[in-house]
Design brief:
Methyltransferase, Cobalt-precorrin-4 Transmethylase, Domain 2, Cobalt-precorrin-4 Transmethylase, domain 1, 502 residues, five-stranded parallel β-sheet, Rossmann fold
């Protein structure tokens, strides 16, 4: 007897931009035990799934199927029957020119639970991303969405396309790149004038979005000449003449940028770059693991109220400290009268996120510069100080404070270890498609990047968050083209934008 405790979520992944996944879609993906995903799903979305989740590729594209539809149906039934939380991640919307209904029927026949989570269809998102309103008051109020996967040389398919050509209003074609020339001819045969404006949008809503405009009579030739590739959406109708006129120009549009932070830390940097139009490859190279002696770290956190100063050398250290602190205590006042010192603007910001004031800031990105701040502003003779740091950094800061007479304990909060997986496919994209810029926010990301020994694309440049990271890049023979003046995410984004503006 099959275990009926499982559930399958058919989730629309949206048109490509990770930000267009719905909140409900992200919620169920974050709790998934098995993810079955399509070719059109942006690999970045797989980063939302738990690290232990099973990922199964079931992609289908022209002439190449990883799985037949019947196999996919059986797989969903098998995994759901086993009591697992399954997410069937489908490009666009599960029910718009997709086979979500067939998958639902298979689950129904097996007596299994399922939920459909609607997604943003590329049929609407691609025109919008190109600045094309599919309906416009006084111009058009009719919309036809149709598939182009059928060969127009087939008589039955040709008749379908002719009927679409006879319809009024805007026509949006999905999956039609392979047969675009023949489809355009059949639309004309159905009554759509050859002079009708037409626009093809490739990789819509992503940073590598491209667009070709023309008219029905020449759009196939223009698209082939421009070398546009699937996935692509074609819009026919008077509204297609508005392509590009209603969409803003963003400063990083068309730039491919590799972000090498840990997956947990990368979101703000990635979203800032995407907001400016960049095509971002999220390539996590490090992750934060528990410290080698978690019990010792926990005991030091538990005694935090015994210290007059708590020094944080990294934002990750702040997170690790308060994760343990709030497992031990349910009241922030249990930290006592301790003052806080920080190295780096990101560390300062993370302390403030926990609603604590930062009493002392290092003048530079170097931890030892904090010693000069202590020396110039306060007496630390016989003062108890707790230094919270990662395992891989030296104890130089603690040693210098001890020389000044302080009573110093070191709390090793975490270990930074290489991230060896490629769940989102960013490495494959970097090798296959190249990039303009690789961004580094720490020395450890630099070392791990070069340890991969990837074939670097021609013309790839490097960006550094500050002088320490820059020095590490130089050790690998890489002279950064960009170095942030302010050593935080905002400063790095500003420097990258300025570089490309020049």
């Amino acid at each position: 007897m099959a275990d009926k405790g499982g559930i399958c979520y058919l989730v629309g992944a949206g048109p490509g931009d990770p930000g267009l996944l719905t909140l409900r879609g992200r919620e169920v993906l974050q709790r998934a035990e098995t993810v079955v995903y399509d070719n059109l799903v942006n690999g970045e979305l797989l980063g939302f799934a738990p690290d232990e989740a099973e990922l199964i590729y079931a992609g289908k594209k022209s002439g190449e199927h990883a799985m037949a539809q019947e196999e996919i149906n059986r797989l969903l039934v098998e995994k759901t029957s086993a009591g697992r939380r399954v997410v069937r991640l489908k490009g666009g919307d599960p029910f718009v020119l997709a086979r979500g209904a067939e998958e639902c029927m298979a689950l129904i026949e097996a007596g299994l639970r399922f939920e459909v989570v609607p997604g943003v269809s590329s049929a609407l998102a691609a025109p919008a991303a190109a600045g094309i309103p599919v309906t416009q008051r006084g111009v058009n109020s009719v919309l036809t969405i149709f598939s182009g996967h059928l060969d127009p040389s087939d008589s039955a398919a040709a008749e379908v396309y002719r009927r679409v050509g006879a319809a009024e209003g805007t026509k949006v074609l999905l999956m039609g790149m392979e047969h675009l020339k023949g489809i355009a001819e059949k639309l004309q045969a159905g009554g759509t004038p050859a002079s009708t404006p037409a626009t093809v949008v490739s990789h819509a809503t992503r940073g590598d979005q491209r667009m070709v405009t023309g008219v029905l009579g020449d759009i196939a030739a223009r698209t082939a000449e421009a070398g546009l590739t699937a996935p692509a959406v074609t819009i026919f109708g008077e509204v297609a003449a508005l392509a590009g006129k209603l969409s803003p120009v963003r400063p990083l549009s068309g730039r491919r940028i590799v972000v090498t932070r840990s997956r947990v830390q990368a979101s703000k940097l990635c979203s800032s770059l995407r907001d400016l139009g960049a095509d971002v490859y999220e390539l996590p190279l490090i992750r934060r693991d528990p410290p080698p002696d978690l019990r010792e770290f926990g005991e030091l956190v538990q005694d935090a109220h015994c210290y007059e100063w708590i020094v944080f050398t990294s934002a990750n250290g702040v997170d690790a400290f308060f994760e343990v602190f709030f497992k031990l205590y349910d009241d922030a006042r249990e930290i006592g009268g301790a003052k806080f010192a920080a190295v780096g603007a990101a560390t300062e910001a993370r302390i403030k996120d926990h609603h604590f004031h930062v009493d002392l800031m290092a003048a530079t990105f170097h931890a030892v510069s904090l010693v000069d701040e202590f020396r110039g502003k306060t007496d630390v003779e016989n003062v108890r100080i707790l230094v919270v740091r990662p395992e891989e950094t030296s104890g130089e800061l603690a040693a210098e404070l001890s020389k000044m007479g302080a009573i110093v304990d070191e709390a090793v909060a975490y270990r930074t270890v290489p991230e060896t997986g490629d769940r989102t496919g960013a490495r494959r994209r970097l090798i296959a498609e190249g990039a303009d810029l690789a961004v580094f926010t720490s020395s450890s990301t630099v070392r791990n990047f070069f340890a991969l020994k990837l074939p670097l694309p021609s013309g790839l440049k490097f960006a550094s968050i500050g002088p320490v990271t820059t020095q590490t890049l130089k050790e690998f023979g890489a002279q950064p083209a960009v170095e942030a003046v302010r050593h935080d995410v905002s400063g790095l984004v500003e420097a990258i934008t300025g570089h490309f503006a020049r």
